[in-house]
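User: My advisor asked me to double-check a structure prediction for TIM barrel protein before group meeting. I don't want to rely on an old file, so could you generate it fresh from this sequence?
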Amino acid sequence: MRFRHPDGTTVHLAYCTNVHPAETLDGVLAQLRDHCEPVRRRLGRDRLGIGLWLARDAARTLDTDPAALRALRGELDRRGLEVVTLNGFPYEGFGADEVKYRVYRPDWADTERLEHTTALARILAGLLPDDVTEGSVSTLPLGWRTAWPAERAAAGHRALTTLAERLDALADLTGRSVRVGLEPEPGCVVETTGDALAPLTAVGHPRIGVCVDTCHLATSFEDPARALDALAEAHVPVVKSQLSAALHADRPDRPEVRSALAAFAEPRFLHQTRTVDAGRLRGTDDLGEALGGDALPTAAPWRAHFHVPLHAAPAAPLTATHDVLRDALARLVGGPRPRTRHLEVETYTWQALPPAQRPRGRAQLTDGIAAELSLARDLLTDLGLKELP
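Assistant: Sure, here is a fresh prediction for TIM barrel protein from the sequence you gave:
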């Protein structure tokens, strides 16, 4: 979906396909048929933006086989779909029964992360619509915090510097500019937007920036205004933003609140949980850990990294951080100029919701994704952007 900002800029809105993960190109093509095109039709749109997640095997096929890339581009066109952004964070296995810490491997100290991200950039340059010259890729925020000594930090810096050089060369070769954004996430080396400033200013390249995920922003209790202003002052670009909401519990000391939270503690994904205690951010790696003892104080609200559907808050006594989403979006695209031009709805947790809240079948999932996109569209038009055909 495309929108015209009051300054004349085109802002793109997509939804991320990691909600229906596939490891192979055949699986990706099935996604387009079974999920993406039905969402477009449900919205009554002639064209729908999607943020593709391409696992290692699918990416290798597309990067090494020009005919396969042309076929994917043709299938996108035939189904009324377009791609300006890729989710390059998960490497493989995002549909596994247990993802947890696996999603952080390989990290940016491993050469495979550099090669995979370079391949994604080349693929995206070949998938961009004819009238679009800039694409974006979101990626791992360097690595998980517990395995990042100085030598790995130095290797990560070298990899990002090499990536910047490759992105420049790609732009010279194709006329398409692809930018890559580290996606701050709780528990990682770059947990917050503030943590991104040092490594990204050290790289100091306009094609390497940040992907602001509004669920992660909220989970770490970051204020959108301060976070985005600090990025701007440091000249760190917001390459893209993922629109998402975190799980919020006002009174984690109450038994009924803990019982409601426990329904969201599931075995597939990591749900990092945070609170602010005496002005200091404290947290656990997973929601079950937070609920299992005295790991977190209960005098202040908790937030958990669980992507809650944008259009549907959880039942009381829980809520979601939709206020942070609205505030961040207003500051990203509601000013005189947009701070980013790529927005991506990223609720990948539909099938990890408590059983009563999960979609029953493909049609209900289609309806849910369409409802999220409709809400995002309304938020954008309320900010003065005009939806384009």
